[in-house]
């Protein structure tokens, strides 16, 4: 159990013990140097039982010998001595420890065992343990650089950075500095043996200095806590931007060897992130730029992007970038156009993107007027102001400071949040920051592509954040029989839940089959009924288009084929149902994820689902609006609009049916492994299940010999 007091000691310590401090250790040299430079020398204690002096200072043989309270201890000793170091730190009052050394879960079973022993010890001592395999953290807001990386950030900002990789974290913090993204925290988590990303996220959400969180992760160790923290962040309007490794099989293997992490099904992760309002990106640059934008703008209330630039070429480029990113650059209202036109030269044009032309070089106030007008337009949610900035650190005054000042005034007068954007990627150094600070410009994004794509991510997050902040409501469980289900059993459940199913007769002889076929007055479908056979068509258990006079013979053929293919399967007759004309076929399925619970999948294709590979996923629960998003997001969504003479699907009715399937799955409780309707036939407003499958989780039981068996 990780307590709030332990996390406070970890993130906001007042005193430090470096256990295993050594002049030969790069970790020790960097950590001590960072703390010393930040003014923490008197509260930083060096512990080394073998060397009386380290880093030019006297050492203590133990933490207890310090005689002063210790908040945070750094364990830099070999694995064999780590447990004793933690006991010593706890005895000195430490509520948090960081294990910097490697050689634990990432090395295999023996290392994992050593790691588990450390966790058990830390829990028994009520100490929050970070790591192992960790490089420390920086609380930039509080001025605490407790990190073994050089050049810790000192300019506090609104983005908290959490990284599972220590080495990558060095590149991340450096890029953040170059890109003008100011950080509130930099935290490495290593193996997450005890304190996880989820713990940190849940803690940082409550920090007023944190306005967005950027996370590099390989695995989500505590899904339930992570989801809870993400929903709280959504309610508070704080964006979470995640770069998660493991999309490819190769990356998944690399993650496992790095920290012993198992990355999970990536498509499920995508679905969960979308549900929680987490922004997912693929590069370090996108992660930090997007987090920086989100920390500056917060929720963007309208999707429209207003663009103001002194370069017509930049306006053209941004228009193309916006189209590629599916970002909206709306037309300005008549009132806005008229207001801008009053200040524009005769050769200028008042539209969006807005080129203020070279006239803004002479009439500096044109910048301010244009930004204010565009930013107050009713269709604009964010303003992009494109202009140059200095990049050389030569100490010379910037010739364009007056333009930056005018831009800053316009941004302050704009109702919509505004961002300063350079035309190309360039470093935002100390002198550039001074230029922006003097002009009261809140944030800069280097590069137009980075800006447009980051803003669009924040726009989409803003539209989703209200839904993402809702906690799921409990459902009333449905009391039903457990055990293996046949299609007949599955049909009964679906009908009970209000899901329409195709009419059918359950028959147990050739004669009954013939009678049933005659009642349906036309060709029929015949399917074997067996709880032991999931994929009936593969073994001759399904026959379609059977004529009435052939039903009896087909009954015997179907039963014989399945008995031969599956000798041990229990066969319970045949299901006879009327054939339906060709229509759109879909799969609606719910599967249990070990980490995230029940996950809904909708897909086009029926029996061709695997071939088409066109599915959309979402964790349960879902409502009709969410289902509509899933359906319209399919690559083959145009099929639902009607093709080759078929009517367009009644999406309202289809969404109702899909929601009913999802609610049934929730009500079936924790024993449900999967529930599948495949195919679900859709023809205009006609929506009905043609087949259903229910699979329960395997239960453990004691057999007659006292052995554990699966039932």
From TrEMBL:
<dbReference type="InterPro" id="IPR051538">
    <property type="entry name" value="Acyl-CoA_Synth/Transferase"/>
</dbReference>
<keyword id="KW-0436">Ligase</keyword>
<keyword id="KW-0547">Nucleotide-binding</keyword>
<dbReference type="InterPro" id="IPR032875">
    <property type="entry name" value="Succ_CoA_lig_flav_dom"/>
</dbReference>
<dbReference type="Pfam" id="PF13607">
    <property type="entry name" value="Succ_CoA_lig"/>
</dbReference>
<feature type="domain" description="ATP-grasp">
    <location>
        <begin position="491"/>
        <end position="527"/>
    </location>
</feature>
<protein>
    <submittedName>
        <fullName>Acetate--CoA ligase family protein</fullName>
    </submittedName>
</protein>
<dbReference type="GO" id="GO:0016874">
    <property type="term" value="F:ligase activity"/>
</dbReference>
<dbReference type="InterPro" id="IPR036291">
    <property type="entry name" value="NAD(P)-bd_dom_sf"/>
</dbReference>
<dbReference type="InterPro" id="IPR016102">
    <property type="entry name" value="Succinyl-CoA_synth-like"/>
</dbReference>
<dbReference type="InterPro" id="IPR003781">
    <property type="entry name" value="CoA-bd"/>
</dbReference>
<dbReference type="Pfam" id="PF13549">
    <property type="entry name" value="ATP-grasp_5"/>
</dbReference>
<dbReference type="InterPro" id="IPR011761">
    <property type="entry name" value="ATP-grasp"/>
</dbReference>
<dbReference type="Pfam" id="PF13380">
    <property type="entry name" value="CoA_binding_2"/>
</dbReference>
<dbReference type="InterPro" id="IPR013815">
    <property type="entry name" value="ATP_grasp_subdomain_1"/>
</dbReference>
<keyword id="KW-0067">ATP-binding</keyword>
């Amino acid at each position: 159990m990780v307590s709030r007091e332990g996390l406070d000691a970890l993130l906001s310590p007042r005193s430090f013990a470096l256990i295993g401090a050594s002049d030969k250790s790069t970790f020790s040299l960097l950590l001590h140097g960072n703390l010393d430079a930040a003014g923490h020398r008197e509260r930083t204690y060096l512990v080394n039982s073998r060397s009386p002096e380290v880093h030019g200072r006297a050492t203590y043989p133990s933490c207890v010998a310090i005689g002063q309270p210790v908040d945070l201890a750094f364990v830099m000793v070999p694995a064999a001595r780590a447990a004793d170091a933690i006991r010593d730190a706890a005895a000195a009052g430490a509520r948090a420890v960081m294990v910097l050394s490697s050689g634990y879960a990432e090395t295999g079973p023996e290392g994992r065992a050593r790691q588990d022993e450390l966790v058990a010890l830390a829990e028994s001592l009520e100490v929050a343990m970070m790591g192992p395999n960790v490089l420390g953290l920086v609380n930039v807001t509080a001025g605490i650089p407790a990190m073994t990386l050089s050049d810790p950030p000192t300019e506090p900002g609104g983005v908290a950075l959490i990284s599972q990789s220590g080495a990558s974290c060095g590149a991340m913090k450096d890029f953040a500095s170059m890109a003008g993204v100011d950080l509130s925290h930099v935290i490495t988590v290593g193996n997450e043996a005890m304190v996880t990303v989820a713990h940190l996220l849940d803690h940082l959400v409550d920090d007023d200095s944190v306005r967005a969180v950027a996370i590099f992760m390989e695995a989500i160790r505590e899904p339930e806590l992570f989801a809870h923290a993400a929903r709280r962040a959504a309610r508070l309007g704080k964006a979470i931007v995640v770069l998660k490794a493991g999309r490819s099989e190769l990356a998944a293997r690399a993650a496992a060897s790095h920290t012993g992490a198992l990355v999970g099904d990536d498509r499920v992760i995508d679905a969960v992130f979308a549900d929680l309002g987490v922004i997912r990106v693929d590069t370090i640059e996108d992660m930090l730029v997007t987090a920086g934008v989100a920390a500056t703008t917060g929720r963007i209330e309208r999707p429209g992007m207003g663009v103001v630039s002194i370069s017509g070429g930049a306006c053209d480029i941004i228009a193309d970038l916006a189209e590629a990113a599916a970002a909206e650059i709306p037309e300005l209202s008549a009132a806005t156009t008229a207001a801008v036109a009053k200040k524009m030269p005769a050769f200028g044009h008042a539209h969006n993107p807005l080129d203020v032309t070279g006239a803004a070089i002479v009439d500096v106030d044109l910048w301010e007027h244009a930004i204010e007008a565009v930013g107050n337009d009713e269709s604009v949610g964010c303003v992009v102001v494109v202009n140059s900035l200095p990049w050389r650190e030569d100490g010379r005054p910037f010739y364009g400071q007056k333009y930056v000042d005018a831009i800053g005034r316009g941004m302050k007068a704009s109702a919509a949040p505004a961002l300063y954007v350079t035309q190309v990627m360039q470093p935002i150094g100390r002198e550039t920051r001074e230029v922006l600070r003097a002009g009261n410009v809140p944030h800069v994004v280097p590069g137009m592509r980075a800006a447009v794509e980051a803003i669009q991510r924040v726009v989409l997050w803003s539209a989703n954040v209200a839904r993402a902040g809702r906690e799921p409501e409990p459902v009333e469980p449905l009391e039903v029989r457990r055990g293996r289900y046949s299609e007949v059993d599955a049909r009964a459940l679906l009908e009970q839940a209000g899901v329409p199913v195709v009419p059918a007769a359950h028959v147990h002889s050739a004669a009954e089959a013939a009678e049933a076929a005659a009642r349906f007055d036309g060709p029929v479908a015949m399917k074997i009924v067996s709880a032991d056979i999931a994929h009936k068509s593969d073994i001759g258990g399904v026959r379609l288009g059977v004529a009435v006079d052939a039903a009896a013979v087909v009954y015997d053929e179907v039963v014989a084929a399945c008995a031969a293919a599956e000798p041990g399967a229990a066969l319970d007759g045949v299901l006879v149902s009327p054939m339906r004309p060709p229509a759109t076929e879909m799969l609606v399925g719910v599967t249990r994820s070990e980490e995230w619970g029940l996950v809904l999948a909708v897909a086009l294709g029926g029996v061709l689902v695997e071939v088409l590979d066109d599915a959309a996923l979402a964790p349960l629960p879902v409502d009709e609006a969410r289902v509509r998003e899933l359906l319209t997001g399919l690559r083959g969504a145009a099929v639902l609009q009607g093709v080759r003479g078929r009517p367009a699907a009644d999406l309202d009715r289809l969404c109702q049916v899909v929601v009913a399937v999802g609610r049934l799955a929730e009500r079936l409780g924790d024993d449900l492994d999967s529930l599948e309707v495949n195919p679900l036939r859709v023809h205009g407003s006609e929506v009905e299940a043609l087949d259903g499958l229910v699979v329960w989780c395997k239960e453990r039981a004691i057999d007659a010999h006292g052995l554990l068996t699966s039932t």
